[in-house]
Amino acid sequence: MTEAHPHFHSEDCRKVSRLLARIGDKWSVLIVMLLANGPRRFNEMKRMIDGISQRMLTLTLRGLERDGLVSRTVYPTIPPRVDYELTPLGHSLREPVMALGQWAQANLGAIAAAQEDFDRRCAAEGKEPRHSPPDVARPQARA
């Protein structure tokens, strides 16, 4: 039997978990990758991120801004122009996010093969495969 690590239940661990949930979600990762090369406008990002709703982009940018990773600059023009860019703290996240994205890209085939193998084994055993996130091999169709 494995002994539980006492630090996994500390308040710091809960804070780290919440932060990792924020910076590890798919929209935050995509936004950090988009902003890695410089500031972008809201609608520009919305066009570039397939499948993100205006509400989700707003909520994600707001969360990243609250965490100090993204800054928002409003220019007094008509209509107002708003740019988003990575802060110095956000720039420090670029390397790990890019590495994660490169790892995912490099392993898409292996993950798809593992999913198909798992699904075949489940079918042979008469079990329904359980999927948490959408399959890598077969993206979910939008309704």
Automatic annotation (TrEMBL):
<dbReference type="InterPro" id="IPR036390">
    <property type="entry name" value="WH_DNA-bd_sf"/>
</dbReference>
<feature type="region of interest" description="Disordered">
    <location>
        <begin position="123"/>
        <end position="143"/>
    </location>
</feature>
<feature type="domain" description="HTH hxlR-type">
    <location>
        <begin position="13"/>
        <end position="112"/>
    </location>
</feature>
<dbReference type="InterPro" id="IPR002577">
    <property type="entry name" value="HTH_HxlR"/>
</dbReference>
<feature type="compositionally biased region" description="Basic and acidic residues">
    <location>
        <begin position="123"/>
        <end position="133"/>
    </location>
</feature>
<keyword id="KW-0805">Transcription regulation</keyword>
<keyword id="KW-0804">Transcription</keyword>
<protein>
    <submittedName>
        <fullName>Helix-turn-helix transcriptional regulator</fullName>
    </submittedName>
</protein>
<keyword id="KW-0238">DNA-binding</keyword>
<dbReference type="InterPro" id="IPR036388">
    <property type="entry name" value="WH-like_DNA-bd_sf"/>
</dbReference>
<dbReference type="Pfam" id="PF01638">
    <property type="entry name" value="HxlR"/>
</dbReference>
